[in-house]
Amino acid sequence: MTVRRTTLGGRTHEFPTLVELMAKATPLRSGDVLAGCAAESAAERVAAQTVLADLPLATFLDEQVVGYDEDDVTRLVLDTHDAAAFAPVASLTVGEFRDRLLAWAAAGDETSISALAPGLTPEMVAATSKLMRNADLVAVGRRTRVVTGLRSTIGLPGTLASRLQPNHPTDDPVGVTASILDGLLHGSGDAVIGINPATDSPARTVALLDLVDAVISRYGIPTQSCVLAHVTTTLRAMEQGAPVDLVFQSVAGTQEANRGFGVTLDLLAEARAGALALGRGTVGDNVTYFETGQGSALSAGAHLGVGGRPVDQQTLEARAYGVARQFRPLLVNTVVGFIGPEYLYDGKQVLRAGLEDHLCGKLLGLPMGVDVCYTNHAEVDGDDTDSLMLLLGAAGCSFVIAVPGSDDVMLHYQSLSFSDVLTTRSVLGLRAAPEFEAWLARMDLLGDDGRVRELAPDAPAAKALLAAATP
Amino acid sequence: MAISVAGDDPWAVLRSATRARVALGRAGDALPTARELEFRAAHAAARDAVHSPLDVDRLRADLDGEVLVVASAAPDRATYLQRPDLGRQLAEGTTLPATGADLAVVLADGLSPRAVHEHGPGLAAALLERLPGWSAAPLVVATQARVALGDAVGAALGVRAVVVLIGERPGLSSADSLGAYLTWDPRPGRVDSERNCVSNVRPPHGLSYAQAADTVAALLAGARELGASGVALKDEGPALPSG
């Protein structure tokens, strides 16, 4: 193996392995410090970025970060690599690839950028993003087009969709319905109405699926439902004839971490096939939904790569997208501030990670959304999440997650509010998914200016929505 | 569905159906000032619960009997929050007496020192009352501590079981929730699946001291019979989230 080195400020920095080079080139975050793989000084970080910039992009096809023989994610990525799609950038270094992406983005050449996806590997996009500043992540992100659909279309230019997340600590049907109605009245829910169940019981999952399906049917809403139970629970629900639009699963970037989630690639393929067979789409056939997040592999102790060395959490996160893309998802989102300050300590780290994850997911061909969120023990507050949501809106993020008043009363963390989605759309001139926007208009919820109307408590549209909640 | 539109304010029905912050109204696209400030107040309480340090002298005064004080290897709050591994180790040079007792109770600040101040002494007393047949080591107060610090404390004290009463991660509506974590045969290297937990001790909103102490005492009796704690010890205690 080649020892890669560079001299910076009179000091020579050496990076004996690709794993160490990638980790030390990563902008500072607490999770890499915890894992023991972060750069030891600011100078070492820039030295690593300098070496990484000169690395041929094709290196990642020959040299692994996590071993091919040991890890099925690596095998999946390399065995499905599309050399023809890679050809336009095959001769570039990582630094040249960054420059090429920025040039295409500035010229508005979405086609050239978006066509690369099958030819890129997670490690390639992770490496490139490490050389980018936040504005670069935004500029390229907004020109990377990924459009998916089931009963609404996600990812069209000028749109920002939202997942309406009506969680309730006991899955109480009235409580869940109250949050759904509040979200719909704010124009949220075009990506999915997606509930994290309080327990993983199959009966509960079926009951919640029936509840949301009834709301969608009664109002004729062009969106989809999801109960974010374990994939095995959703498989059982499908066997029982439950109305499953989307199969959900949390995934991570190593075989070992996925084992910790209780999933294999075969299991995910089986679940996708089951949902496809139900034929519930109207505008598309993307029937899976995945969540990821930097730090998930480390928290499971499943973050080691070649030579038993710790892999940085951003590279592992991009590898999770390498898993997700095989199953043609409707939606993928990183849960960027959820896992805690030992992985992303403060607003600066969360902001950067959200933008990195969005771009890396998009470059790999994913309909990438972000749960812009934080816990109370992180150095993050509403000002930080405002900044991230607006930057993600500018970056063309496919969707964000929204909960009533930013307060998830089941998972005990703060995400965006329904109001935040309205603000982001207004400030940046973004719209809901077109099918959903047409529905808002039919419900008299859309103003002439394209904004979601604020209804008086006794407005006919509000009363109609509430009345329709009573069968 | 039991949502009705009777009455003058249909939104009141939504609000009464859940603790979620529904039907807050709007100021343009944003939240009205009063709702915004309510949210900030809840977040501020949670933040203060995380960052207000444990007042060891005050806690010691609230406890009966001899008290030992230890600190983890995390020197300050910022390090504690970013390095859970350090919060699981005792500070270098810590010495504790070997007691050979059956049980040690550790009061640990965790993520909410406020919870330990408010509920630690009450729960510790209620628990020890229920364990007449058990010899107990002196109470231990631990700062910048994670649950697993109890393993190192318990091993040093030479006890058969350790119960860690620790401040839980504050939520927007619960800044003072205490958790009790039981580990049989404590020693460094125990994993979370080898513990049992009773969480949300927070009268009057959560569990009372008596309820929590009954459960922990029953778990201790079960652990002594089984010679183990954690997933092998069924029913009362679910396996833990990591921490």
Automatic annotation (TrEMBL), chain A:
Protein name (Swiss-Prot/TrEMBL): Ethanolamine ammonia-lyase large subunit
GO cellular component, one term: ethanolamine ammonia-lyase complex
Compartment(s): Bacterial microcompartment
Gene designation per UniProt: eutB
Reaction(s) catalysed (UniProt annotation): ethanolamine = acetaldehyde + NH4(+)
Pathway the protein takes part in: Amine and polyamine degradation; ethanolamine degradation
Lineage start: Bacteria, Bacillati, Actinomycetota, Actinomycetes, Geodermatophilales
Record-listed substrate binding positions: R163, L164, Q165, N196, E291, D371
One Pfam short name: EutB
Binding site for adenosylcob(III)alamin: P197, Q249, S299, M410
Molecular functions (GO terms): cobalamin binding; ethanolamine ammonia-lyase activity
Keywords on record: Bacterial microcompartment, Cobalamin, Cobalt, Lyase
E.C. designation(s): 4.3.1.7
Native source organism of the sequence: Geodermatophilus amargosae
From TrEMBL, chain B:
InterPro entries given in the database record: EutC, EutC_C, EutC_N
Catalytic activity from the UniProt record: ethanolamine = acetaldehyde + NH4(+)
Record: residues binding adenosylcob(III)alamin: V147, E168, C197
Root EC class: lyase
Pathway: Amine and polyamine degradation; ethanolamine degradation
Localization per Swiss-Prot or TrEMBL: Bacterial microcompartment
Keywords from the named record: Bacterial microcompartment, Cobalamin, Cobalt, Lyase
Domain of life: Bacteria
Quaternary context: The basic unit is a heterodimer which dimerizes to form tetramers. The heterotetramers trimerize; 6 large subunits form a core ring with 6 small subunits projecting outwards.
Family indicated by similarity: Belongs to the EutC family.
Co-factor binding comment: Binds between the large and small subunits.
PANTHER family in alphabetical order: ETHANOLAMINE AMMONIA-LYASE LIGHT CHAIN (PTHR39330), ETHANOLAMINE AMMONIA-LYASE SMALL SUBUNIT (PTHR39330:SF1)
UniProt-recorded name of the protein: Ethanolamine ammonia-lyase small subunit
EC number: 4.3.1.7
Cofactor: adenosylcob(III)alamin
Any one GO molecular function term: ethanolamine ammonia-lyase activity
Pfam family, one: EutC
GO biological process terms held by the UniProt record: amino acid metabolic process; ethanolamine catabolic process
Cellular component GO terms, alphabetical: ethanolamine ammonia-lyase complex; ethanolamine degradation polyhedral organelle
Function: Catalyzes the deamination of various vicinal amino-alcohols to oxo compounds. Allows this organism to utilize ethanolamine as the sole source of nitrogen and carbon in the presence of external vitamin B12.
